[in-house]
Design a protein that fits this description.
single chain, 311 residues, alpha+beta, Naphthalene 1,2-dioxygenase Alpha Subunit, Chain A, domain 1, 2 domains, seven-stranded antiparallel sheet, four-stranded antiparallel sheet, binds FE2/S2 (inorganic) cluster, binds fe (ii) ion
């Protein structure tokens, strides 16, 4: 556990890659939750497994290949089926029943290939991630960052209204929209303005947090909607991978504003990184009266930790 953050890695559904980053036929090495993982795809079936071959320890994601739906190790070409069992040893009459890959539960939603992470692998998923990116939305851009911090510090930023002025240069400190908590989900609606060549235009932001690693933000103005999908996944207890993917609803206006929306999110994210990487998590922060939503957020976030001190 990092010294400046008291909680372990949270449990839940996390994006380990965008779906299109693990195309058919590819074998992709990933490092997530302090584990070496390998991902591959067989038609509509997405697989993520522990990457170390139980035969003699080769990394299956470095030189491995998919053959007849099985993952073949680059070292001695043992093959493993989608359930992790060894299906073939090229120089033996039968497979080794004890040689098994550890399979991770996978699901796909909102353009993300997700896995269920829990420190106790026998714990089944406690929720499902809803699909909030509509069919027909078109991607307009993406960016990724590796940040030396934890999910909660990044997510907390959204209810820390004062920093939007001091760090990001917003014109005023606005108030947090009402946070609606619903089990592992959280929604915040807020009225915004969008600076255009015709002056400030009214806009609306619907920010849905889907467990501890995934958020879908829907920004609507003039009946057009731009969507961003954010994913924060621990690489290890000290570091996380943040990805953003932006979509337009296909309307002319959304296509037009989506690139500047994406650039603004990227600019703000980069401004926050040095703060996150050097701050400490204060369990009892000295807050101004308007900052109560921060503690509401923390109470909600506490449900995703096993064995953590309460927030
Ligand atoms: S190490 Fe994988 S087949 Fe030998
Ligand atoms: Fe920020």
């Amino acid at each position: 556990m990092p010294e400046n953050f008291p909680f372990p890695m949270p449990f839940g559904w996390f994006g380990v890659a965008r779906v299109d980053e693990v195309p058919e036929g590819a074998v992709v090495a990933l490092e997530r939750f302090g584990h070496k993982l390998v991902a591959w795809r067989d038609g509509d079936d997405h697989h993520v497994a522990g990457a170390i071959c139980p035969h003699m320890g080769a990394h299956l994601g470095v030189g491995g290949r998919v053959e007849d739906g099985c993952l073949v190790c680059p070292f001695h070409e043992w093959a493993f089926g989608p359930d992790g069992t060894n299906t073939d040893i090229p120089y033996a009459d039968k497979p080794n029943r004890k040689a098994r890959l550890t399979m991770w539960r996978t699901a796909v939603a909102n353009g993300l290939l997700m896995v269920w992470y829990h420190p106790d692998p026998s714990v089944e998923p406690t929720y499902e991630v809803p699909h909030l990116v509509p069919e027909g939305a078109t991607e307009t851009g993406r960016f990724d960052r590796v940040v030396r911090t934890q999910w909660q510090e990044i997510a907390e930023n959204g209810v820390d209204m004062a920093h939007f002025k001091s760090v990001h240069g917003a014109g005023r400190v606005s108030t947090v929209g009402e946070q609606v908590f619903d089990g592992p989900f959280r929604t915040v609606q807020s009225d915004q303005t969008f600076g255009s060549s015709k002056g400030e235009l009214p806009a609306h932001l619907n920010n849905s947090t889907l467990g501890p690693g995934i958020g879908v933000q829907r920004f609507t103005m003039l009946d057009a909607t731009v969507i961003s999908v954010s994913s924060t996944t621990a690489i290890d207890p000290h570091t996380c991978l943040q990805t953003f993917t932006f979509y337009s609803d296909g309307s002319v206006i959304a296509d037009k504003i989506a690139p500047s929306f994406a650039l603004e999110v990227e600019r703000q994210f980069d401004q926050d990184i040095p703060i996150w990487e050097n701050k400490e998590f204060l369990a009892v922060p000295a807050l101004a009266p308007s900052e109560k939503p921060l503690m509401d957020f923390r109470k909600w976030a506490a449900q995703f930790y096993v064995g953590a001190p309460s927030a």
